[in-house]
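Section 3.1: Structural characterization of target chains.
Under the original work plan, the team committed to producing a structural model for every single-chain target entering the pipeline before any wet-lab resources were allocated. The record below documents one such target. The sequence was received from the expression subgroup and is listed exactly as submitted; it comprises 696 residues.
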Amino acid sequence: MGFNVGETVGGYTITEYIGQGGMATIYKAHQAALDRDVALKVIHPALKEDQSFVMRLKREAAIIAKLNHPNIVTVYDFSEHEGLPFLVLRFIEGKTLKAVLQEQKLATHQILNIVRPIADALTYAHSRGVLHRDVKPSNILIDIEGHVYLTDFGLARFAFSNESTSSQDMLIGSPHYISPEQAKSEAVDVTTDIYSLGIILYEMFTGRVPFSANTPYATILAQINDSPPAPRSINPKIPRAVELVLLKTLAKNPKQRYPTVRAMLKALDNAVRGPAEAEDGATALPLIEYRSPNENPLQGSLTRVSDQLKTAATLLGGNPKQPRAWLPVLIGAGMLLALLVCLVGTVFFAMNQNNPATRGTLAASTSIASAGKQATKPVAPTALLPGLTALLPPRPAATATALPPSPPPPTAARTPTLSPVAALPLAEAPRGKIAYTLATGDSAELHTIWVVNADGTEAHAIIDTAMWGALSPDGKLIAYNRTKEKGIYIANADGSNSRQILGSQACCAQWSPNGKQLVYYQGDPNFKFERAIYTANVDGTNPTPIAEGYSPTWSPDGNRIAYAGCQTNSNRCGLFIVDLKTKNSNLISQDNGTLPQWSPRGDKLVYQASDGKSHINVFVVNADGTNRTQLTYGKSNDGQPVWSSDGNFIFYRSDQDGKEWGIFAMRADGANPKLVVNKTPPDGTLWGRESLSTAP
């Protein structure tokens, strides 16, 4: 017999039947030990004696356990009960893309919002040698906040192992989404997933799949032999450039498709933006450049040591191509030599410590090895005192460009290090305090709001089970969201005297300059991509709609609100500014930028966006949309920027090119980035929606 609602299976109490597929049934269950909901994927009782199906489930568990990505559903455990094997997965409350497509027609920007994270997940899986081989709408989940996940790796294979990538030994996939070569049981590569993703794109743009017949076998034959109907013959509103991308993605010959998911997405993004903008190179794709899983940690340590020595050599040799604003021009050679000796000594001391820097990942997701051993209290981050901040090679000079921009390539690679190597202090240290979220796992209890001095001292937790902290202008109060009891709350800056002021759909408040109002965004929890921006009094009264968008922030003069969004009936997305007196809203950037924050003078906005090379970085732009400038050149994720109270510095969070999350301070022009506090992992899914917050 199968499992039943109300039954307890190995520590999981089944609470709801979710659905059934070809080989397994999905249940929602509650794990009392960690007080969290999970999904159980249980093999059908009739198949438990068929070792091919049992091995398929085990293979799925083994593959997902090797993939740690915020857009791939996490596996927690593999077990069995009374002879029935089952997987324990993260429970995603929401809908499948299949259900969404049955309910509504998606706008172009919604299509891109769905395909980008799935492309990101596939790019990551492919970089790990994993082929999904069953990409289809029912295997794409969208939660109630609009986050997108790829699931069901039951047909996945390792492309670069001795394991066969043909399909003759098992179920071959879904007829409407299967590639021709997979249908013919031929060897496949990454282009088989590209084909399936192309079918999904075709369906989202046209409202139907390209191949459908009376029987599954006839549909498979059409996949192998027939050309897809021209997308514009079904939906004439589809741009010709988009049609060409779809047809190339669905080429019968794998060699005629795009070679990578990233290449396909770049072509689609350019096609959507139109030929006039397609040549500017600003692709604004939120994809991550992933490092090889076989990277030798010792080699990485040696590389970091080498980089530090090269930096010291540059200080001695005077490389004119490196900016040295922080080094006095006439500093004596003796001091420089002493600095080099100190650096070398510190490096050798660090190499002899048996405590290598922890390699971070994109997400703070729970890995299969630690799923059952999470600490109930967050681990304190490592604060770096002044004089012990990490030494970073000088960044390339920030270069201003016109909008829409093409970010200039850096003149030198940025290689942050986590080692507490002595560095020349900033001539003028940042002041004030910073609020941020620390997430040490997926569950609500593992999200905590912390506050640290701007010099990296006295980091301490103030509110448990919370995130999206925003300090009031005078630093005496903090607005935030709870991760269990949803809604916006206000408390004293030390976390005391907490009270709820807005309901469960309200999120991510920012303060008015006089501290008497909040601006926030509100969304439908039953699945909406759009968010409506509101203002309200600090006691929650007088909620007033302002615009459609998210990530709002109030200007210092109190007359304007900047936010992220998309133009109505348009694919142009980026930063907007709405005048609260005239209600006029203007688009000032077209780069899909998010998380804008005003400078204290109100003349600039700092924000995060893609640099066109699949990296998220920090940018600054004038309030009128001119003089857009790239400030960071990380190779993974630099974001959540915010100004210091005096406007001289910008704080931001960085995963340091995939090594480990930390909070940095740099001058307002992007010079002299310094590590303020280390080991500060954000929420793996929501980090791109949450800003840091500062106060005097």
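The radius of gyration is 26 Å.
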